[in-house]
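Justification of resources, computational component.

The compute hours requested in this renewal are based largely on the per-chain cost of generating structure records like the one below. Each record pairs the submitted sequence with a full structure-token output. That output is archived, and it is also reused by downstream analysis tasks.
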Amino acid sequence: MSPRPSAGSRAAGRSGDAVTAAGVRHLRRADPVMKALIDSIGPLDPEARRRGRPTDPYGALLRSIVGQQLSTKAARTIYARMLELWGGKTPTPKQLLATDPEAIRAAGMSRPKVGYLRDLAERVLDGRLELDRLNELSDEEISAELTAVKGLGQWSADMFLIFFLGRPDVLPVGDLGVRRAVQNVYALPEMPAPDALFELAQPWRPHRSLASLYLWTSLDNAPVLEPS
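The structure output for this chain reads:
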């Protein structure tokens, strides 16, 4: 297990300008292929991919469940349609549990996903998932807490760590977009398996989140499904 993060690395704003600049310098020194990618793309707006996403932890996890196995566009459409049930706002756990599951399904949600949303709400209400204390935990501890929720796998935990908490050294080895980008950028004959990606990414430490953002950016014109 990696060391418990410092107070600075716990902050959601960890991927600020100074941290991004340090990360860019490290990646350019550590990996010539990553250097070429960074030079071709130029400066990133680290917050760009967070815009339009819920700004509270419960809403972020709710949105993650909705988006599983959907294109980004479809996920946005279904999420917006679902929120109409609650006046366009993220429902509280109590509001979600009080809503007829069939009404949620009618917004475009599958029966299993509705079950996942309800499990999340129940765990928040009964205290099994303490969202307010997640940022006090290490990346591994947070992943363990989140993957205990039905429908939240390691991919969902990685997205929460990167986009909501701003943790700097997360490598989403299960993300199809990152794996496809690595195949393209490193001229590999096929997408790397998760273990191979983990090894390839060792030089990126401790800025694997930033490397992933550059890899995603290289695929911005390509549709990528969001795994569970």
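The radius of gyration is 18 Å. Confidence is low (pLDDT under 50) at residues 1-15, 221-228.
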